[in-house]
Specification:
Layout: H1 2-43, E1 46-47, E2 64-65, H2 81-101
Parallel strand pairs: 1-2
Length: about 100
């Protein structure tokens, strides 16, 4: 929800700026609307760079952001222990990088 709102704000601001520059007041309004739509959709996606379980009620559709080369397992196909360990290791590594950047 927060990502979606931030996406709407950022997309709206960018769309408004570009629209005003190239299309005057009407372009500004249309650009803002388009930016809010695209930004809101993108911000509402759940990123899974490090892998993991999609949150929410089992079987309920969710929007996610996948990266090329990733594999998605459907419900009923459990990840192997090796896959679980690899995801946990990746999450620890990413958390360590974020901590060092602070």
């Amino acid at each position: 929800m927060i990502g979606q709102k931030l996406g709407e704000l950022g997309g709206g601001a960018l769309g408004s700026f570009i629209g005003k520059k190239y299309g005057g007041e009407k372009g500004e309004k249309l650009g803002k609307q388009a930016g809010e739509l695209v930004g809101g959709l993108a911000g509402g996606l759940l990123p899974f760079k490090t892998g993991g379980r999609v949150p929410g009620k089992r079987g309920k559709p969710k929007k996610i952001l996948a990266h090329s080369g990733e594999y998605i397992l459907p419900i009923g196909v459990p990840p192997t222990e090796q896959q679980k360990k690899a995801v946990a290791k990746k999450k620890r590594s990413e958390a360590k990088k974020r901590k060092m950047m602070k």
